[in-house]
Automatic annotation (TrEMBL):
Residues 20-131 form the Dihydroprymidine dehydrogenase domain. PANTHER family: GLUTAMATE SYNTHASE [NADPH] SMALL CHAIN (PTHR42783), GLUTAMATE SYNTHASE [NADPH] SMALL CHAIN-RELATED (PTHR42783:SF3). The keyword Iron applies. This is NAD(P)-dependent oxidoreductase. Keywords: 4Fe-4S, Iron, Iron-sulfur, Metal-binding, Oxidoreductase. The keyword Iron-sulfur applies. InterPro entries: DPD_II (IPR028261), FAD/NAD-bd_sf (IPR036188), FAD/NAD-binding_dom (IPR023753), GltD-like (IPR006006), Helical_ferredxn (IPR009051). Residues 146-454 form the FAD/NAD(P)-binding domain. Pfam families: Fer4_20 (PF14691), Pyr_redox_2 (PF07992). Gene3D superfamilies: Alpha-helical ferredoxin, FAD/NAD(P)-binding domain.
C-alpha cells in the first residue's frame, strides 16, 4: 500500500469518442488484473477514511482495496458485497467524483484519488465471471409475506434482503421488466442492461415473485395489497416530469426526457416502439436541444449523439461550475461532440405547422444566492437569441406522483413536496404496516441512496414483522 507517490492515477482506458459515439456499449475498457491491483495499492489506508464516511453505504473501501492489491479478489468481493446489494452497478453509475473519490485523502494532497469506482466494478464483474456470486438462498420460511411496489434499486434491495431472511416476497411494477430507472432510464453506455438483468434473474431464481405490468390503483388498491401481505413497501421512485412554462411548449417535438430515454432503451432490448419508429423519439438527422444540467440531461445529449443527431446542444441556466450533473459526464459529452450553452434558459418555443422549429433563448446571469445558497439565475434583458431545433428534450428533473390519489389511499400522508411522509425511526408511513424508501421519500436522488434506504428499511421492517410473527411450532428453525 501507500504507493501513491510512485504510481499515478490511471482510470480504465476509454474507447475513442468516434468509436463509442456509434454504439450503446459502455465507454471504458476493463482493467487488467495487474492494473487493478496497482491502482488499489495507491490507497493510503487512512486512519479516518473519508471515502467510507462519504459513501452512503459506508462501504469498507480501504479494506477491499487492500485485499485487491494483495490479489485476494474473492475476499475483496465478499467484503464489498457485505454492504451493497449491487456493487457493480454503483461502481458504474455513482458520481464518485462527488462521493468517495472526491473525498479521498490523497486527492487532497494533489496525487489524484484512488480509482475506487473502477476497482469496485472490476472486482464484482470478476466475481460474476468466476462464479463467486452466490445464488439467493432463502432462510427458513417465516409464514409472512411482503409486497413491494416498485422494482427499482430500493425495491430490489428490500426484496433481496427480506427473501434471504425467509419472507415470501412479491414485487409489483408498472413496467414489463424489473429494474426501474436502471433498466429504462439509464442508457447502456453507462450501464449495460445484462448487468441489471442478471441481478433481477438472481432474485427470481431465489423465489422473489415479480408481477410485471401491474399498476397499484388500476390492478389493486393499496388497501387490497395491505390485506394480502403482512407488510407493504412503497418504493416507486419519482417519475412526474417537471414542467416548463413558456409559449409553444406544447408543440410536437418537445418531449419529456424519460419518454425519450425509455424509448431508446426499449429499442436496445429489441422492443417495438411506435413513437421511436415514427421518428418522434428518434434524434437521427435532427438538431437536438436538451434543457437541463443534471445527469438525466447528460444521458439525453449522449443518447442523441449515438442516434445520429445532426447537432446536439445542452442549455443550462447556470454556469459550468454550478451545474448539478457529473463533471465527468460533461467531459465525456464534450468529447463526443455535444455543445454546452451555459447561462441560457428557454424563453419560448417556435414551431412550423405545430412542430417545433427553434428555441428562443434568454441569456442568463447569476444574481444573489437563493434559499439553497446557490446564486440564482436571472434573465439578462435584451440578450435573447434563437437556436434551431427539430427535437427539444426537457430534462428538468422529477417530482413525486400523487400517490394517495393513484393508490386510492387518501390516508397516506405526504409532505408539502408530495413525497411520502414516514417515521424515520421505523420508516413506516401513516398507514400501519406500510413502509417507504428511496426517491419517493427523499426526492430525486442517487441510486446509491436508494440502495442505502432499501437496506435500512429491510432492517426496520424485519424487526417490526418479528414482533407480529405467527407462533412457531416446537423444534422449528427460524433465522434471526
Amino acid at each position: 500500500m501507500l504507493q501513491f507517490p510512485k504510481i499515478g492515477q490511471v482510470y480504465p482506458e476509454k474507447r475513442t469518442a468516434d468509436e463509442r459515439a456509434h454504439d450503446f456499449d459502455e465507454i471504458s475498457r476493463v482493467y487488467a488484473l495487474a492494473k487493478a491491483e496497482e491502482q488499489s495499492s495507491r490507497c493510503s489506508q487512512c486512519g479516518v477514511p473519508y471515502c467510507t464516511t462519504h459513501c452512503p453505504l459506508h462501504n469498507h473501501i480501504p479494506d477491499w482495496l487492500r485485499l485487491t492489491a494483495e490479489g485476494r479478489l474473492r475476499e475483496a468481493y465478499e467484503l464489498s458485497n457485505a454492504t451493497s446489494t449491487m456493487p457493480e452497478i454503483c461502481g458504474r453509475i455513482c458520481p464518485q467524483d462527488r462521493l468517495c473519490e472526491g473525498n479521498c485523502v490523497i486527492e487532497f494532497s494533489g496525487h489524484g484519488a484512488v480509482t475506487i469506482g473502477s476497482v469496485e466494478k472490476f472486482i464484482t464483474d470478476t466475481a460474476w465471471e468466476e462464479g463467486w456470486v452466490e445464488p439467493l438462498t432463502p432462510g427458513p420460511a417465516r409464514g409472512q409475506s411482503i409486497g413491494i411496489i416498485g422494482a427499482g434499486p430500493a425495491g430490489l434491495t428490500v426484496a433481496d434482503l427480506m427473501r434471504a431472511r425467509g419472507y415470501e416476497v412479491h414485487v409489483y411494477d408498472r413496467h414489463d421488466r424489473a429494474g426501474g430507472l436502471l433498466t429504462y432510464g439509464i442508457p447502456g453506455f453507462k450501464l449495460e442492461k445484462p448487468i441489471v438483468m442478471r441481478r433481477v434473474d438472481r432474485l427470481a431464481a431465489g423465489g422473489v415473485v415479480f408481477h410485471q405490468d401491474f399498476e397499484v390503483g388500476r390492478d389493486a388498491s393499496l388497501a387490497e395489497l395491505r390485506a394480502k401481505h403482512d407488510a407493504v413497501v412503497i418504493a416507486t421512485g419519482v417519475y412526474k416530469a417537471r414542467a416548463i412554462k413558456a409559449p409553444g411548449v406544447g408543440a410536437d417535438g418537445v418531449v419529456e426526457a424519460l419518454d425519450y430515454l425509455t424509448a431508446s432503451n426499449r429499442k436496445g432490448f429489441g422492443d417495438a416502439v411506435p413513437a421511436f419508429d415514427a421518428g418522434a423519439l428518434d434524434a437521427a438527422g435532427k438538431n437536438v436541444v436538451v434543457i437541463g444540467g443534471g445527469d438525466t440531461a447528460m444521458d439525453c445529449v449522449r443518447t442523441a449523439i449515438r442516434q445520429g443527431a445532426s447537432s446536439v446542444r445542452c442549455l443550462y441556466r447556470r454556469d459550468r461550475a454550478n451545474m448539478p450533473g457529473s463533471q465527468r459526464e460533461v467531459k465525456n459529452a464534450e468529447e463526443e461532440g455535444v455543445e454546452f450553452v451555459w447561462l441560457a434558459g428557454p424563453e419560448a418555443f417556435h414551431d412550423t405547422d405545430g412542430t417545433v422549429s427553434g428555441v428562443q433563448v434568454a441569456k442568463m446571469r447569476l444574481g444573489q444566492p437563493d434559499a439553497s445558497g446557490r446564486r440564482a439565475p436571472e434573465a439578462d434583458p435584451g440578450a435573447e437569441y434563437r437556436i434551431e431545433a427539430d427535437l427539444v428534450i426537457k430534462a428538468l428533473g422529477f417530482d413525486p406522483e400523487e400517490l394517495p390519489r393513484l393508490f386510492g389511499a387518501q390516508e397516506l400522508a405526504v409532505t408539502r413536496w408530495g413525497t411520502i411522509r414516514i417515521d424515520h425511526k421505523t420508516m413506516m408511513t401513516s398507514v400501519d404496516g406500510v413502509f417507504a424508501a428511496g426517491d419517493i421519500v427523499r426526492g430525486a436522488s442517487l441510486v446509491v441512496w436508494a440502495v442505502r434506504d432499501g437496506r435500512d428499511l429491510a432492517d426496520r421492517m424485519h424487526a417490526w414483522l418479528k414482533e407480529r410473527a405467527p407462533a412457531v411450532p416446537a423444534g422449528a428453525l427460524v433465522s434471526a
